[in-house]
Design brief:
By secondary structure, the chain is of the alpha+beta class. Helix 2 packs antiparallel against helix 9 and helix 4 crosses helix 5. The relative contact order is 0.18.
Length: about 325
């Protein structure tokens, strides 16, 4: 192992002071691997991602974990997954996907709270965050946290429960995945149980411009809801697995790969330049720089794609 590492990374007499890792053949192999990784990523987000039932099933669990991680950083209690909120989120996501709109208010005037009523979720407070065209769960969570209104929903101490769902549809002429994040503060019936039913007053909806021209943020509240004796089901589900988080965050996973490879290339360059500082080979140095520029270029392009298509409201 030591001999191989010395051969590929450390300039010395036996390799003619030309580490094999920076030679044309090795650089060609690494470039090919970079291109293949980028091609797989692009195929995933443009073809596999929109058609994958796996992604639609995994994304909510990952987003719930990321939401609770954000709350934990502020020393806040985690939100409990509620099956009724999940059903309401599913109805809203499917409505947007079916009718091709992206808004808190449907074309026929239905508010987000219509879907709460549809599933019989009675609440004292409620909130909604939306996203579309994202292909990375961590990017959705980051975009919401970087927007004042969305962040306020996520870090609202009054909210106790959460329900997230996704649906595939067409938005602005391209296949897209709609994400709906519902928050709720359940009404408490006189019996002491969490209750469901139709809310009795109209929410106060505040709409503000989100940062970076990404979209619009929504902060809402619902007070003095009616109470009934029907139970609301709250489920504490298992956290998303490492594999689920990786598959639902392809851009981040690719960035980690590029980052790790970039560190290796930088290390190879530093060894090449400084171990035998009086013996330099410009071609090998140029090869290393080429690899770094290629990875930085792809990472920047992927970030631009993410910014170009994604929206939150």
């Amino acid at each position: 192992m030591k001999k191989t590492l010395k051969k590929y990374f450390i300039p010395h007499k036996e390799n003619d002071n030309k580490p094999h890792f920076l030679r044309p053949v090795a650089v060609f192999v690494v470039l090919a691997a970079i291109l293949i990784a980028e091609a797989v990523f692009l195929l995933d987000i443009f073809f596999a991602f929109p058609k994958s039932n796996f992604i639609a099933a995994v994304l909510p669990s990952v987003l719930v974990d990321l939401t609770n991680e954000s709350r934990a950083q502020e020393n806040m209690m985690p939100l409990q997954t509620n099956s009724l909120l999940e059903k309401a989120a599913k109805l809203k996501a499917e409505d947007m996907a079916k009718r091709g709109y992206f808004s808190h208010v449907a074309p026929d005037g239905k508010s987000p709270w219509h879907f709460f009523d549809e599933v019989g979720y009675l609440y004292q407070g409620a909130g909604e965050n939306l996203a579309v065209n994202f292909f990375d769960s961590s990017d959705v969570a980051r975009a919401w946290m970087n927007s004042t209104g969305h962040r306020a929903n996520i870090l609202n101490k009054q909210f106790k429960e959460i329900g997230i769902s996704t649906a595939e549809g067409v938005y602005e002429g391209r296949v897209a995945v709609f994400v709906v994040q519902f928050f709720g503060t359940p009404a408490i019936a006189n019996s002491g149980f969490r209750a469901t039913g139709t809310a009795g007053t109209t929410p106060d909806i505040k709409i503000t411009e989100a940062e970076n021209k990404m979209s619009i943020a929504l902060a809402v509240s619902q007070e003095n809801a009616e109470t009934t004796s029907v139970l609301s089901v709250s489920n504490e589900k298992a956290a998303a697995s490492v594999g689920e988080k990786i598959f639902s965050a392809p851009r981040m996973a690719l960035n980690y790969v590029f980052g790790a490879l970039g560190i290796i290339v930088m290390l190879a360059l530093m060894l090449k330049i400084f171990v035998k500082i009086k013996i330099q080979h410009p071609v090998l140095i140029a090869n290393g720089v080429l690899l770094i520029i290629t990875m930085l270029g792809f990472a920047a392009a992927n970030d631009y794609l993410n910014f170009l298509f994604t929206k939150i409201i």
